[in-house]
Write a structure and sequence with these properties.
CATH class of the largest domain: Mainly Alpha
Order of helices and strands: HHHHHHH
Helix content: 55-70%
Number of strands: 0
Structural class: mainly alpha
Radius of gyration: 25 Å
Shape: rod-shaped
């Protein structure tokens, strides 16, 4: 797996640019770009964002989290914190004598418990 510096070098070289060319554009200097590309320095967040914008790739790609220049596609799955109060609230919302309520309550509890995992 490539490093961040290697990925940055690949993008720069693919565009036919020198370290000096890039340094001028991103308001840095050639020595800094060389250190980053050689793994002797960590790029600043500002430099990473500039690189991603200029070369039209995702930060995930530059940071080697994916090999897809457009980045990885993530599905948002926020974890809901469900405690016993929530379960008691669900119990109170359904009539225990109703068969339909029993099924709905069970389905809702399953959803709540799945989101806890």
């Amino acid at each position: 797996m490539p490093t961040i510096g290697e990925r940055m070098r690949e993008l720069r070289e693919a565009a036919g640019m020198t370290q000096t060319d890039v340094a001028k554009l991103c308001k840095s200097n050639q020595a800094t770009i060389a250190k980053v590309e050689n793994g002797k320095a960590q790029p600043s967040v500002k430099l990473l964002i500039w690189w991603a914008d200029y070369f039209d790739v995702s930060l995930d790609y530059i940071c080697c989290r994916t090999d897809k220049p457009q980045g990885a596609t993530y599905k948002a799955r926020p974890q809901a914190k469900v405690n016993n109060d929530m379960k008691r609230f669900i119990e109170m919302c359904f009539d225990p004598k109703s068969p339909a309520s029993k099924q709905l309550k069970k389905a809702l509890m399953n959803v709540v418990e799945e989101n806890q995992e």
